[in-house]
Design brief:
Number of helices: 13
Helix content: 25-40%
Largest sheet: 7 strands, mixed
CATH architecture of the largest domain: 2-Layer Sandwich
Strand order of the largest sheet: 3-9-10-16-13-12-11
Distance between the termini: 22 Å
Bound molecules: glycyl-adenosine-5'-phosphate
CATH topology of the largest domain: BirA Bifunctional Protein, domain 2
Low-confidence stretches: none
Radius of gyration: 25 Å
Number of domains: 2
Strand content: 25-35%
Structural class: alpha+beta
CATH superfamily of the largest domain: Bira Bifunctional Protein, Domain 2
CATH class of the largest domain: Alpha Beta
Length: 433
């Protein structure tokens, strides 16, 4: 894990937020490569969950909603974690997450003197408008799905859908986690990719099973190590109050097996709760059968940041090439920040590379790297996960071909320049890498 964190900081994937002021616990910035990786993961999710389907549409709702939303959803009353304080050093912990090696700075023995557990609400608050009184309190959303429920009728009508259909959203969520930890695994600001699928009640369990299969396949399709992905069914006493069935997709992170994604049958809990609190009917009437019901919801919910961490953990490899140690990010080409790097063998060939760059950049994120020996440039790109290095040499001037080097196998192939775009398109979409 330390190696992944160091690589992320040194190579421009992820840095602590506001680092020059000492950072802020639970908040992270994504650098140039992290931004690309993140965007690629989100694009892959959106492609599968929205664009390739007739029965799912997208939404981009506001982060702050009417605070009644969070009363109706149960978050104001129930979105709590237990918390204990050390009476001596004032440090705060979740009782189930006290690290035994963590020492109290105010006690010679190092042992914390902990209070009894108290409940702590995890929603982050802000205030809206010029006055700061109780009436101005608003919450940064703790999950993206609530606005999907609020907009359910509008989206259904405007997009001419009817159950079974889904609404998908990617967006930031905020939780005042007591112990943000394990790098980006548990943060206070993170991003979710959620899809709420509205179904006739009798069809909910069937859709639940179908979505489970879709979601597991997606993780494998973006290159997560299949041997590290597992299903875990929630025991009845562990399920959220609204859930009739719940499974987590867990991943073997370097710090243990933990939740990556949740798939829930949320029943009609959310739409009924919002009907009750808003006074607006959220039921649906089937125009043909005249049957009226409040749809059940099957939810798939995954964190972008956790997914990105699982992708990095799956991809990080240390091996040897020609007797030299190398660090390699074996990212699936679909999500790799750069799809290829164009490397002129000599600086003098830079100009000749420009038409290649221009053509490839119409479709892909391509780096242009002229500095250092060719071997150094290969290593640099291996370390950031670039699946292909395209070398333009003096022969290229004559035969109009370039050498493509494969990141994982280091094998090289001579390819005509005018076939490059097609070569990359095939290699990226296939299971190469
Ligand atoms: N709408 C359902 C929901 O929000 P959740 O299990 O609380 O369920 C869903 O969160 C996903 O969001 C998790 O599986 C995880 O990937 C991500 N997530 C939750 N809390 C997180 C945090 N503090 N930091 C990073 N990701 C988080």
């Amino acid at each position: 894990m330390e190696k992944i964190v160091a690589l992320c900081a040194n190579r421009g994937f992820i840095y602590p937020s506001s680092e020059i002021y000492g950072g802020i616990n639970g908040f992270w910035d994504y650098g140039p490569l992290g931004t690309e990786l993140r965007n690629n993961i989100k694009a892959e999710w959106w492609q599968l969950m929205v664009r390739e389907r007739d029965d799912v549409v997208g939404l981009d709702s506001s982060i702050i909603a009417n605070p009644q939303t969070w009363v109706a959803s149960g978050h104001v009353a129930h979105f709590h974690d237990p918390m204990v304080d050390c009476k001596l050093c004032k440090k705060r912990f979740r009782p189930d997450q006290v690290d035994p090696s963590d020492r109290c700075a105010e006690n010679e023995s190092g042992t914390h003197d902990l209070t009894e557990p108290r409940q702590f609400n995890l929603m982050l608050q802000t205030s809206i408008g010029a006055t700061e009184d109780k009436a101005s309190i608003a919450y940064l959303r703790a999950e993206t799905c609530q606005s999907i429920f609020l907009d359910f009728k509008r989206v259904m009508q405007s997009s001419r859908k009817k159950p079974p259909f889904g609404i998908a959203q990617i967006g930031k969520a905020f939780r005042n986690e007591i112990n943000p930890r394990n790098f980006i695994f548990r943060s206070r600001e993170f991003e979710q990719m959620e899809m709420e699928f509205f179904t006739p009640p009798a069809e909910a369990m069937d859709w639940f099973e179908r979505w489970r299969a879709v979601r597991m396949e997606w993780h494998k399709s973006i290159g997560l190590d299949p041997t590290r992905l597992h299903w875990r069914e929630h025991a009845e006493n562990e399920r959220a109050h609204y859930a009739a069935a719940a499974y987590d997709i867990e991943f073997d992170f370097p710090f243990g097996r933990h939740e990556l994604e949740g798939v829930h049958n949320r029943t009609d809990f959310d739409l009924k709760a919002h009907t009750e609190h808003s006074g607006k009917d959220m039921s649906y009437t089937n125009a043909e059968t005249k049957e009226r019901y409040t749809p059940y919801v099957v939810e798939t919910s995954v964190g972008v940041d956790r997914c990105l961490l699982a992708a990095l953990a799956s991809a990080y490899v240390e091996d040897e090439v020609g007797g030299d140690a190398r660090t390699l990010l074996k990212l699936h080409p679909k999500i790799a920040p750069f799809k290829a790097a164009v490397l002129p063998l000599s600086k003098k060939l830079s100009e000749s590379c420009q038409p290649i760059l221009k053509a490839l950049r119409t479709r892909f994120n391509i780096d242009f790297d002229v500095s250092g020996s060719i071997g150094k440039r290969y290593r640099r790109h291996d370390e950031i996960g670039t699946p292909f290095c395209i070398t333009y040499d003096f022969e290229s001037e004559e035969d109009h071909k370039v050498t493509i080097r494969d990141r994982d196998t280091t094998t090289q192939q001579r390819v005509p320049i005018d076939g490059l775009l097609e070569y990359l398109a095939t290699a990226i979409s296939g299971d190469v890498g």
